[in-house]
């Protein structure tokens, strides 16, 4: 088909016109789209003139007059304005891309959609997935990214009990909070203690529930086990009961003086085995409190692994085991060469998320013994993990909001970094293409 030379468009010129949103669309003979783009541009300019510039000014200064300016509100308004500006830049570059793309279509096909009806029909036919996902992305921006952005900026301020707006203004302090974590002896020692216990807690509790979940699933899936359905129901009980109730119950069971462990279980063991095991200080000795927490989380977490692994075991072809049996493989060889690789192959992403979940598992630490017993400084108890320490930093009698925000960012970087490395090393999502 011969293209009319009069209908050819200059792609570069279309892009240059689009430096003012909408003009490139008018150049491409799409007045409907051009009006919409210009309207969005003018709306943004109006918003910047009326509210945007004052919001950015307040964000930079965080107020100048105590009791009149509220630094926290100015920080929040500024963060919101930054998101609006970023969204506009996304629109701005899409506007330039659209103008250049449509100009290219004119040059290739000799025509393009110019009427409002044709443009809307093409948007519905070609962009239906985007029309569905754009609202979700916008909601995610304001529901997830906005709070994260506020937390990020708070970490660079001196927002604490000495600077509570509007009576006191908040100031920008740069990296001071992050440096204080490692330079001030009180914070350094507390952070080292809490962080090391968080790592130990995460590895022990998560590994325990994974090992127990896989073990129970394999045992319950053996053909020689009678009443397998009953066992599966029993193994699901810890998952069926709300964790809040279970944790509070275990808190009473492990009570030093009247708990069932010390008053019934240990005496029964001593009677049966003729031993003399003393009562254990489950809630007053930091070591035994940590042991109790790991035991409880193993109990709470293994049913989920059990259910997931049970599904994987039932999907493994029986021919693999039959071939292994013919080759003379014993039970352990079948387990190490067939069962375990298939389990890890299918569940690697979920197993990794179990570690990240327990890294921030606030409820069990708080409900069992409120992070106690004792204290390791800066408001943290001997069994507090990072997330529960952050809670105490923000709700104590001397709140340290900026420091809590800084530690929160460090937690986020640690969790995201370790998760990405683990996903890459295990090829967790690449496995999906191979299944």
Describe this structure as you would to a colleague.
It is a multi-pass membrane protein. Belongs to the binding-protein-dependent transport system permease family. MalFG subfamily. Helix 3 packs antiparallel against helix 4, helix 9 crosses helix 12 and helix 12 packs antiparallel against helix 15. This protein has 18 helices and no strands. By secondary structure, it is mainly alpha-helical. It is flat and about 95 Å long.
Largest sheet: none
Number of domains: 2
Helix content: over 70%
Low-confidence stretches: none
- Taking Cα atoms only, what radius of gyration do you get, to the nearest Å? 30 Å
Termini distance?
Answer: 46 Å
For this structure, the CATH topology of the largest domain is: MetI-like fold
**Order of H and E elements:** HHHHHHHHHHHHHHHHHH
* Strand element count: 0
Q: Which class of the largest domain in CATH terms?
A: Mainly Alpha
Mean pLDDT: 89
Determine the strand fraction and express it as a percent band. Answer: under 5%
* Principal-axis shape: flat
Count of helical segments?
A: 18
CATH superfamily of the largest domain: MetI-like
Summarize the structure.
This protein is mainly alpha-helical and 435 residues long. It has helices at 11-17, 23-27, 31-61, 71-109, 116-126, 128-154, 176-183, 185-220, 228-240, 243-253, 260-273, 286-315, 318-326, 331-359, 362-369, 386-395, 401-426, 431-434.
Topology:
Blueprint: H1 11-17, H2 23-27, H3 31-61, H4 71-109, H5 116-126, H6 128-154, H7 176-183, H8 185-220, H9 228-240, H10 243-253, H11 260-273, H12 286-315, H13 318-326, H14 331-359, H15 362-369, H16 386-395, H17 401-426, H18 431-434
Helix pairs in contact: 1-4, 3-4, 4-6, 6-17, 7-8, 8-12, 8-14, 9-12, 10-15, 12-14, 12-15, 14-17, 16-17
């Amino acid at each position: 088909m011969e293209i009319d030379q009069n209908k050819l468009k200059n792609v570069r010129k279309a892009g240059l016109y689009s430096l003012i949103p909408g003009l490139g669309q008018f150049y491409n003979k799409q007045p409907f789209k051009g009006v919409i783009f210009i309207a969005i541009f003018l709306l943004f300019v109006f918003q910047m003139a009326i509210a945007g510039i004052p919001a950015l000014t307040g964000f930079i200064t965080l107020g100048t007059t105590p009791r009149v300016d509220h630094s926290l509100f100015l920080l929040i308004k500024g963060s919101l304005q930054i998101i609006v500006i970023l969204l506009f830049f996304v629109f701005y570059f899409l506007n330039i891309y659209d103008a250049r793309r449509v100009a290219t279509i004119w040059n290739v096909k000799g025509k393009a959609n110019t009427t409002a009806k044709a443009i809307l029909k093409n948007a519905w036919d070609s962009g239906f997935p985007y029309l569905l996902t754009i609202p979700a992305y916008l909601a995610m921006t304001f529901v997830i990214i906005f709070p994260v952005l506020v937390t990020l900026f708070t970490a660079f301020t001196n927002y604490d009990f000495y600077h509570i707006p509007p009576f006191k203004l908040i100031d920008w302090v740069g990296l001071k909070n992050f440096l204080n974590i490692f330079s001030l002896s009180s914070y350094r020692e507390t952070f080292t203690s809490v962080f090391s216990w968080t790592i130990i807690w995460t590895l022990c509790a998560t590994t325990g529930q994974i090992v127990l979940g896989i073990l129970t699933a394999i045992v319950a899936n053996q053909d020689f086990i009678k009443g397998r359905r009953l066992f599966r129901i029993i193994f699901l009980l810890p998952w069926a009961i709300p964790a809040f109730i279970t944790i509070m119950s275990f808190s009473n069971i492990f009570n030093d003086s009247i708990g069932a462990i010390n008053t019934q279980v240990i005496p029964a063991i001593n009677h049966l085995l003729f031993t003399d095991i003393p009562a254990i200080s489950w809630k007053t000795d930091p070591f035994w409190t940590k042991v109790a927490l790991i035991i409880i989380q193993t109990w709470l977490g293994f049913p989920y692994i059990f259910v997931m692994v049970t599904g994987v075991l039932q999907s493994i072809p029986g021919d693999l085991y039959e071939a292994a049996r013919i080759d003379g493989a014993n039970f352990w060889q079948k387990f190490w060469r067939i069962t375990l690789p298939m389990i890890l192959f299918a569940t690697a992403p979920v197993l990794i998320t179990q570690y990240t979940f327990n890294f921030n598992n606030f409820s069990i630490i708080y409900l069992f013994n409120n992070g106690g017993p004792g204290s390791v400084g800066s408001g943290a108890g001997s069994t507090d993990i990072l997330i529960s320490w952050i809670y105490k930093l923000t709700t104590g009698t001397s709140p340290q909001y900026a420091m809590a925000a800084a530690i929160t960012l460090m937690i986020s970087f640690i969790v995201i970094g370790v998760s990405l490395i683990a996903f890459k090393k295990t090829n967790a999502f690449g496995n999906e293409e191979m299944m």
